[in-house]
Amino acid sequence: MPIHSHFFALYRLRYRFWQPFCTLAAFFISISLLSAAPVKITFSADKLQGSGAKGQTSTSLTGNAQVSVDSLTIHGERIELYGKDYRYIKASGNVTGEDPEKGFTFSAASLSYDRETEVAEFMGQATVKDTKNKVETAAERIEYNQKNETILLQMAVKLTSKDITCDSLFAVYNRSTSMLELTGKPTVKKGKDQFKAARISVNLDTEAIKLEGKVSGSVTEEKEAVKKVETPSNAKEETPSEEETKTP
Known about the structure:
Helix content: under 10%
Radius of gyration: 31 Å
Oligomer: single chain
Number of helices: 2
Largest sheet: 17 strands, antiparallel
């Protein structure tokens, strides 16, 4: 019998034994695996179901599910791990997570992650916060490629960085270069200034903005109040009054 099949057969026997004692408390399991690649995977949940076959594995976690892959941690109501060496991870139900080593956090209705390509797809009111560069992104769909450090945002895109706020239908944010490309009715607000164009490029480090095609906008010039200060040179010279000039 394959090792994985033997493991899950033993688990089912143990679970049947403990099931009568779990009516008031959830059954909690924490397992650590070392896959063929040098990546450690740990996961835990209230309930676990799995199957094993030669070269293929599948595990389903439900209830307070959590999976950690190196420094990346994913939380959700349901998480599935499947494929060879648990290559794919799917999570749903109030999905949240963080990677303090690479400097980002996220939340979404659902998540799909490919450990081999290191591409994560977030769906449904998704947010990804770049904690290193202090950039917050939100969209209906976000795809994050960790290898080339690019974040693709689609539909209802919102991005904030320092004094800049951006809205558009599509956007590409490069974490390594801090460059942002906006298309699909993009609008960029910088303080009280507002810019619109067919395409807008923003350097989030320098806050330089480049507009292309059907450009429009408004710029508010803030006038500084100048306070006049009297100095001996501009002070009005006092002249003696007529009475003071009379001599006795």
